[in-house]
Here is the input.
Amino acid sequence: MTRIRVALLFGGRSSEHAISCATAAGVLGAIDRERFEVVPIGITHDGAWTLQPDDPERFRLDAELPRVIDDGSRVSTPESADSREWWVRRADGESESLGEIDIAFPILHGRFGEDGTIQGRLELLDIPYVGNGVFASSLAMDKHFAKTVLQGAGVEVAPWWTVTREGLERDRVLWRSRLRSLGLPVFVKPARAGSSVGVSRVADWDELDAALETAFAEDDRVLVEAGIVGREVECGVLEGRDGGLPRVSVAGEIVVRGRDFYDFEAKYLDDGAAELICPTSLRPRELQAMQAIAARAFEAVGASGLARVDFFYTGSEFVLNEINTMPGFTPISMFPKCWQASGMEYPELITELIELGLAARR
Here is the structure.
C-alpha cells in the first residue's frame, strides 16, 4: 500500500517554539507508520525551514526545553500550485528532492504559524493541510477579535478592555478608570500569544504597570480581563464528517496547586503544579450545555479540523476563556486526553485529523 506522505511542520518563530517541538515529538512517536510517511520539517527561531531527524526523543519536553537546531539544510516548498514536489538543499550545497507531499501537518503554536500565516502560504500553493484555515486561525489567535465575535454569537466571555501603549499614553486617566471598572483581580494578556506566555494575574493595582510591560514584550496590543471565579474546564472539538455537526469530547478540568493561575511553568515545567483530570465530574445537563457552547464557538469563528475550547464554570454558567485552533498535542495534553476519554486513542486522533485535512482540500 502506498503511504500518504505528511510534511510535519514544527518549531517556528513564536515564543511557543519549544511547545511546538514537544507536540512534534508526540506526533512522531504515535502516527500510524503503516499508513503515513513523515517528513519532519523544523522551523528555527529565525524562520529557517530545515530537514530534521525522524526521532521523537530529540524533541521531547524534558529538563531542557526542546528546540529546532539549524543544521544548515534548507527545505523549499513547490514554486507553484502545479507541483507537490518539495526539495532540500543540504548544508554542503547539494540539493535533492523530498518527493511529492500529500498533506502538510502544521503543528505550530502561536504567531507565524497558528495565526494563519503558514495556512496562507499553503493555500497559495494548493497544498492540503491539517487544521483550521486562514480566517479561523487568524481570528482565534487574536483574543480581542475572537472575544468580539464570540460575544456577538451569544457566547458568554469575561469582560475586558484592549489597550496599546499609545492609547495609555494619550489618556492615562481615562484608561486607568476603564481598567479599574473591571475590579480585582484582573488578568493581563498579550492579544496574540498562547501557552500563558506573557500573562500575569494582578491582585493589586500597583502591580498593573509591571504586568502590562510583561505583556507588551510579546505583543503591541494587550487585553486586561476581569478575573472569573470558577472551575477551569476544557473540551476538544473535531469538525463533523461529511458536513455533519462538530463533534465535542467529554470535559477535562485543570486543578492548579500552589500557584495563582495555570501559567507557563505550571503547564510545562512543574509536574506538581497542576493536575489534568479527564473526564471530570459534570452533571449530564452541565456537560451538554458546555458541549453545545463549544460547538457554537467552533462554528462562530469558522473553525475546521480541530479546536480546544476553554471555559470557567461558575456553577451556573460557562464563561468561555479561549478557543485554541492548534492546541497542545502531546499524548498528555488536554486535547488528546479528552478525546481518549471519549473513545478515540491518540494515534486514531492523528489519523482522523489527517483524513479531515485531505477531505477538506481535495
About this structure: The chain has three domains: 4-129, 140-157+229-360, 160-226. The longest helix spans residues 284-300. The domain at 140-157+229-360 is CATH 3.30.470.20 (D-amino Acid Aminotransferase; Chain A, domain 1). The longest strand covers residues 247-256.
